[in-house]
Queue: 3 jobs
Job 1
Amino acid sequence: MSAVLKPEVRFRPITEADLDRLLEIEQQAHVSPWTRGIFRDCIRVNYICTVMELGVGIAGYSIFNIAVDEAHLFNICINPQFQRQGFGRILLEHILDQCRERQAKSVFLEVRPSNVGAIALYESAGFVEVGIRTGYYPANEGRREDALIFARDV
């Protein structure tokens, strides 16, 4: 029996030089992608902005902030070519480790109800649904989609 080896991942801060590639990934991965300005603002205000790299390039990234003892995950994205291969879990575990190191006691995030893969990942990582933001996300054809609010202790 042969084992399938995952390539080694590396984490580093997002830089301005990453923005073109992040915007490409955003366009591929999201119905309503972030803009260059949103990424720049997150870097400028010192949110925790992380790239997850493989030898072949950017596999994913995350942006979150911690205020007092509460973390809020604003964006976690896996490059579509690397989805459903365990990289989302690796990135989420890295985020939770960073929260622990910075002494956050809880983590909050929003997710679209239509993003069943992400919901399954969050639930398997111990997140529970704690609320709904009605009409939170822009959707296709001018519609809006709710956001499910998930939380977990760190």
Job 2
Amino acid sequence: MLALWIVLGVVALLVLLLIGLYNSLVTARNRVENAWSQIDVQLKRRHDLIPNLVEVCKGYMKYEQNVLESVTKARQQAVQIAGGSVQDRAQAESVLTGALRQLFAVAENYPDLKANQNMLALQEELTATENRIAFARQHYNDSVMGYNTQIQQSPANLFAASLGFQPKDFFELTDPAQREPVKVQF
């Protein structure tokens, strides 16, 4: 009879440990999903600012329609891919970042545009949003690192895959050209 109680105690302990492990993994996964939604909020804010920026620039940059069109097209693609994978979103946002960099570089050639109060306000808003995106991306990547580490460590690695916990992708730049500084030429 004592042996039965010992076996039941060990089984109960293992069940409690498995429940604790599962709850810990769920918490880590939810942190990743929350961090991703924070990125999503900031990207939406960025996407909402861009049409206003393009409108302000249109009147001044009559000879730079290709730049304005590339920004508009990159924004449209980024908005359309909103439900895509992390890698697809990162790629689309990298293209959009490059188009915005090109727009700001060309805007340097238009002193009236640079002095326009609407343009200055939009640049300030966009800069603040870019900083928020960078912070949200860092938080997301930190959450992904913690989650991925947790599902790869023992004993979680023995159960994580069978419980439906898969590694998450980092939100990172995929195009090495995006790491280069913007080149402004006058």
Job 3
Amino acid sequence: MAKFQYKLQSVLDIKQKLENQEKIAFGLASAKLQEEQEILQDLMIQKAGYDKQARKLVEGSINVREINVCRKAIETMKAKIRIQMMNVHRAEKQLELARRKLNEVMIERKTYEKLREKKFEEFKMELAYEEKKEVDELVSYTYHQNEK
């Protein structure tokens, strides 16, 4: 019996490896985005702490030097937060790019898999046809042998 051999199997294997690589890249981009968001959240928590400290400094006896230090710390935190927001935005873009690449590679792999399935179905139909032809020949041969 004939064995099915897909001529583009090596291409399909390469597409599967590329897809696995893109999945890894997508996972790394997702982890990077998560990390950047956590850093942003920590900075916002620190800023909230400085804001709370500034309010306390204004309530009690006023120490101008401490208030100025606290105000500068708040301004510094605002600048860090802006920078971190840009980092988060950059990480989001990288994640979206990785998602697009992954989708493209998945579509290519699925296309080759569908083609393989189609070729396999054609192979099965051809095999069934050959089998039917052999059975017909055998029946015809036995019928002619019985007539003699």
